[in-house]
Design brief:
222 residues; mainly alpha; two-stranded antiparallel ribbon; 3% strand
């Protein structure tokens, strides 16, 4: 039993190897991009909006509401980044209903890349909101002696983001594989449903934590 989609190599040309993680990640990116383009092509502002636009507005409004609930007042500034994180992780996890599909979030390389995006976004948003000097000064609070501890905190929470998402998705797939080999009829279906719920919850947790980190970095914004 494979513990990660990284172990499933689809293309091996010696100098070039494409595993299931890389292939499914790019397919998901293409799927999300095309779907977004189709759904936003004919947006309307009158009362004759389509059901697809209503669902899209509900999704965007829900994400924006969560961003504001965490403490970021100008949700539109952070919506593209946080929303993209959430939608990608949800789609990657929910697609597990497709037979033979392996979620790229079950690979530590994918979750590490997502966590790295958050790690880079936090100081960028912080500097944009507070200025370079004010943001850097926050690492010296409450005293200069806290500098190494604040840096370690930034690195450790990035690692925690990556490992948490990877561990939950990978363990869910592993449990389903074990149960399917022992009881191949009814119970795997139940566990599959639970895995989908867990995937959505993990996407929510990852996005909320990213929002919390950005909110902490932008404190002091005028």
């Amino acid at each position: 039993m494979r513990l990660s989609p990284d172990q499933s190599v689809w293309v091996n040309l010696g100098w070039l190897q494409l595993n299931a993680t890389v292939v499914t990640t790019w397919l998901l990116i293409a799927l999300i991009a095309v779907t977004a383009g189709v759904l936003t092509r004919h947006l309307r502002s009158d009362t004759g909006i389509t059901s697809a636009q209503s669902l899209l507005e509900l999704l965007v409004g829900g994400i924006a509401g969560q961003i504001e609930a965490v403490g970021l007042k100008d949700s539109g500034r952070y919506l593209p980044f946080i929303g993209t994180l959430f939608i990608f992780i949800v789609v990657a996890n929910v697609a597990a209903i497709i037979p033979g599909y392996e979620a790229p979030t079950g690979s530590l390389s994918t979750t590490a890349a997502l966590a790295l995006c958050v790690f880079l976004a936090v100081p960028l948003y912080g500097i944009r909101a507070r200025g370079f000097r004010a943001y850097c000064k926050s690492y010296l609070q409450p005293t200069f002696a806290m500098l190494p501890f604040n840096i370690v905190s930034e690195l450790s929470r990035t690692l925690a983001l990556a490992v948490r998402l990877f561990g939950n998705i990978m363990s869910g797939a592993l449990v389903i594989g074990i149960v399917a080999s022992l009881v191949p009829l009814f119970f795997p279906i139940v566990f599959k449903a639970l895995e989908l719920i867990t995937g959505i919850v993990q996407a929510y947790i990852f996005s909320v934590l990213a929002t919390v980190y950005i909110a902490a970095a932008t404190q002091g914004e005028a």
